[in-house]
Write a structure and sequence with these properties.
Layout lengths: L4 H6 L4 H10 L32 H17 L6 H17 L2 E4 L6 E4 L7 H13 L14 E4 L6 H16 L11 E4 L14
Parallel strand pairs: 3-4
Antiparallel strand pairs: 1-2
Length: 201
């Protein structure tokens, strides 16, 4: 399988299957493979986006839109009006935090996308999908059992340590650890000012 989506679409053997996959899954990731180099054994592919890299405003808004539409397809939103209202709020938040800078990969000066804050429900859904789509995880069939422990309101390292210990004791369950029950993700606040810089590193 070749790296880019265009290459896959051109393959006479893969085109029908690829089209069916595209119809059911709005957001797909490239394999990163080429004719010269296979990345199947790598956990992190060389073409994957890096956390905190500068990306264009258009790209950030498009990814947010695709993410929220995937939630809508999974019946997280009650109706189209609720989805549209959320899309408007998210785009406004991204625009508000945007600034001019240089994209990391293309080295183009443009308006860089800002950040947006997911609701607990959106974040839990996204974490479950990330686990389900993890290439190397043999336990990903338990992804729907994952529970979010939303600690984004924590504001100090002391509070963070207390919450980790409290939840670890709870997950230990007096020695009766059940992997299904312990599928918990702790989410702390992001250091937003580090994720949007004017120039690439």
């Amino acid at each position: 399988m070749l790296g880019s989506m265009g290459d896959i679409a051109q393959c006479p053997f893969m085109s029908a299957e690829h089209q069916r996959i595209r119809e059911n899954h709005r957001t797909l990731a490239s394999t990163g493979c080429s004719k010269e180099f296979c990345q199947a054994g790598r956990i992190i592919h060389t073409d994957e986006p890096r956390i905190g890299e500068n990306r264009s405003l258009h790209l950030v808004c498009q990814e947010a839109t695709d993410f929220l539409r995937d939630l809508y397809d999974d019946n997280v939103f009650a109706n189209e009006a609720e989805l549209d209202a959320r899309l408007q709020a998210v785009h406004a938040e991204i625009l508000h935090g945007s600034k001019e800078g240089v994209t990391r990969e293309e080295k183009i000066r443009t308006q860089l996308g800002g950040n947006w804050t997911q609701t607990p429900q959106e974040l839990e859904w996204g974490l479950r999908r990330a686990w389900r789509n993890a290439r190397k995880c043999i336990a990903r069939n338990h992804s729907e059992e994952l529970k979010l422990c939303d600690l984004r309101s924590v504001t100090s390292s002391t509070e963070m340590a207390k919450e980790i210990l409290r939840n670890a004791v709870e997950a230990f369950n007096n020695g009766r650890v059940e992997p299904k029950v312990c599928s918990i993700i702790w989410t702390f606040p992001a250091l937003l000012e580090q994720f949007l810089i004017a120039e690439p590193l």
